[in-house]
Amino acid sequence: MEKDLKFRMYGLVNYQLTGIQQAIQFGHSVVEYGQLVKGFTVENIYDKWANIDKTVILLNGGTTNDSKDNYGTLQKHRDLLVENKILLAEFREPDLNDALTAICFLVSEEVWDKEIYPDFVRTPYPWSYNKKPSLKQKADWEAEDSKNYEAWCDKIGKQNVFLREFLRDKRLA
């Protein structure tokens, strides 16, 4: 690990469960995560989180349904995280017909600490609204803005950029 980052374990849980049931299902997924990372480099990050950071964030993951006709939002969230190469663990409750009830994944401070890692702010327009820029001025501004955005993405990491956007509209469970 290049930096000594802080981590939080985020979880998405089925909204239909009671609060205590959500916490239990999330706990099961955290145990699954710990088992999943054994022997891999990420095990050191998990151990640091488990021994030092310890913070958990439980979010409303919505519905659960494996049927392709009525695919649950929890499944959609899981699929999107996997598609973006976010390591996660899931838990399926045997007493609920093996329904997906929780997923969890570690999130570094580069995602949630907006003081140290502020959001990207577009380059200000170098002209006023009553003065229209030339096509070249606009193209130059867009190129500079794009370059700044790429530098910001490189600083916090592409997966972290994805996680910032993914987590932006999620609500606590």
Description of the structure:
The protein is α+β, with helices and mostly antiparallel strands and 173 residues long. The protein has one domain (7-114, 151-167): Bit1 (3-Layer(aba) Sandwich), CATH 3.40.1490. The protein contains 6 helices and 4 strands. It has helices spanning 19-36, 42-53, 73-83, 109-112, 135-156, 158-167; strands at residues 7-14, 56-62, 89-93, 99-108. It has a 4-stranded mixed beta sheet with strand order 2-1-4-3. The longest helix has 22 residues, at 135-156. The chain starts with 6 loop residues before the first strand and ends in a 6-residue tail after the last helix. The model has no long low-confidence stretch (mean pLDDT 94).
